[in-house]
Each structure stands twice: as structure tokens, then as C-alpha cells.
Design a protein that fits this description.
Order of helices and strands: HHEEEEEHEHEEHE
Radius of gyration: 26 Å
Number of helices: 5
Distance between the termini: 118 Å
Length: 206
């Protein structure tokens, strides 16, 4: 009886481990993940509006019909991105996902406290390469480090009533997500400036 109970417990534990590993590995081994599905219908490093949620055809699962949605499929290999999202009248949110669909950051109009959500997205290496300039690294500049070079940014704007959907879509249509063309120079090692030798003291007359 004890041996049977131990066998059942071992089987349950083994099944749980297999299930957990499968769930964690699925986003990495899936051949038709969100990034792959959105690639044909979105531009790289640009904001693309998604069609309204429809049970028969939906580019993404669990889309809420009360929200207008847009996607920025990004690639940071060419440089950091500048993201600008005007805030809608009701509610606006921006969520960040890696290539393997792991969420790593989110912000909304309440936490931003501004009429425009504006931030810089870059890799850790690009962040470390920024010059130590007070104007550039000030608290007013929101910098987000992406754990992967490629990923997805999901933009949502709430339409509290069906008649306000056009307004929500218009706010996302004015959003931009593009590579920063003018990048500040990278940090450089300080080179000591040579100090000229003092002139020789004049000799006194004999």
C-alpha cells in the first residue's frame, strides 16, 4: 500500500515537472508564435494598427473589442527606438514583450502623468554606451532596457462606448516608433592633456 502511494505521488510530481517544462518551453519552440503571425501584417520599427477584434478572424488571441490596438514590431540592431504615444481620452497603455513573448515592462497614461507617453527603448549595451551627460541621463528621459534585440510593443486605447472607437484609433494612428537617427556619441576614455614644461629660469648677470 505504501509502495503504491509512493508510486502515485512520484507520478504526479513527474507529470507536474513535465507540464511545467512544456509550458515554459512552448513560446521558444513554437513555429507560429505572435511575432511570426504579426510579421506579414506589420512593418519593422513602425506602428501598425490592428483590425478590430472579430471572433472569426483575430490576429492576436484574447483581443478586447473595447480597445483599439496597434503593434510596433521592433529590431534594435540598427539602434535605439524612440516611442511616442499620444494619450486617448479614456485610457492608454503600452506593453513590451521579448521575441519569445515574455512581458518585461508596461506603462499607462496614469503612471506616465503626461498627455504623451514618450520613452527610449534600447539594449543594455546601447544604454551603457550613452555618454555621462546630465542632460541626456536626466530623470525626465525614460529609458527602457530590452532584454532582447527583437520584440513587440503592444499599444492599447480604450473606447468606453462604440461611438468613441474612431477617437481611440485616431490617437494610436498618431503614435510613432522609429530608430533614433541622431545618436549621442558613445563614451570615450579620457585622454590626459599634456602639461607644458615651465620655461627655464633666467640666469643672473655676472
Amino acid at each position: 500500500m505504501i509502495r503504491l502511494a509512493l508510486t502515485i505521488v512520484a507520478g504526479v510530481i513527474l507529470g507536474g515537472i513535465v507540464h511545467l517544462v512544456s509550458v515554459l518551453a512552448l513560446p521558444r519552440i513554437a513555429s507560429h508564435d505572435a511575432y511570426s503571425r504579426l510579421t506579414p501584417m506589420t512593418e519593422l520599427n513602425a506602428v501598425t494598427a490592428l483590425p478590430s477584434a472579430d471572433p472569426s478572424r483575430s490576429p492576436m488571441p484574447f483581443m478586447d473589442p473595447a480597445f483599439a490596438m496597434a503593434i510596433c514590431r521592433y529590431d534594435l540592431s540598427a539602434g535605439p527606438l524612440k516611442l511616442t504615444v499620444p494619450v486617448s481620452q479614456a485610457y492608454t497603455s503600452v506593453s513590451f514583450y521579448t521575441r519569445s513573448e515574455i512581458a518585461y515592462y508596461a506603462i499607462n497614461d496614469r503612471s506616465a502623468g503626461k498627455k504623451v507617453i514618450e520613452l527610449d527603448l534600447m539594449t543594455e549595451a546601447q544604454h551603457e554606451a550613452l555618454p555621462e551627460d546630465e542632460d541626456i541621463t536626466s530623470a525626465d528621459r525614460l529609458i527602457i532596457d530590452s532584454p532582447s534585440t527583437t520584440g513587440l510593443i503592444v499599444l492599447k486605447a480604450l473606447a468606453p462606448e462604440p461611438g468613441l472607437m474612431a477617437q481611440a484609433q485616431a490617437s494610436l494612428a498618431n503614435a510613432s516608433c522609429q530608430v533614433q537617427v541622431d545618436q549621442p556619441p558613445a563614451k570615450q576614455a579620457e585622454v590626459p592633456v599634456p602639461v607644458p614644461a615651465p620655461p627655464p629660469a633666467p640666469r643672473g648677470r655676472r
